[in-house]
């Protein structure tokens, strides 16, 4: 992962999704006060459906922490996908 740097994260103000790699995004949205709000999102797929998982705001979660949380989420999502597939196969074999 090398899409974002701490300096880029700090300076970026353009609203939108700014990718870091491996499903990690910095989401920038306009705030009511005229500034911007920055938060971390992890995007992944389970069972063919896209999902988004909030990892926290930039005030509480640094780039390094967001990357670490995303790595943990990759492992969890992979395990959940395997369990869902296994469960679906078991239901089909019962019918």
What order do the helices and strands come in, and which of them pair?
Layout: H1 6-11, E1 16-21, E2 24-30, E3 36-46, E4 49-57, H2 63-94
Antiparallel strand pairs: 1-2, 2-3, 3-4
Protein model, in words:
This protein has one domain (6-94): Integrase, DNA-binding domain (Double Stranded RNA Binding Domain), CATH 3.30.160. 40% of the residues lie in helices and 35% in strands. It is built from 2 helices and 4 strands. The protein has helices at residues 6-11, 63-94, and strands at residues 16-21, 24-30, 36-46, 49-57. The protein is elongated and about 55 Å long. The mean pLDDT is 84.
Compact summary:
With 95 residues, this protein is an alpha+beta fold. It is 40% helix and 35% strand.
Any descriptors?
95 residues, 40% helix
Largest sheet: 4 strands, antiparallel
The shape, in one word, is elongated
How do the SSEs run, as a string of H and E? HEEEEH
The N- and C-terminal alpha carbons lie at a distance of 44 Å
Any idea of the CATH topology? Double Stranded RNA Binding Domain
Strand order of the largest sheet: 1-2-3-4
| Percentage of residues in DSSP E strands | 25-35%
Radius of gyration: 17 Å
Q: Which residue ranges are poorly predicted, with pLDDT under 50 across at least 5 consecutive positions? A: none
Overall pLDDT metric: 84
Q: How many DSSP helices?
A: 2
- Total number of distinct structural domains: 1
Q: How does CATH name the architecture?
A: 2-Layer Sandwich
Q: Estimate the helix proportion, in percent.
A: 40-55%
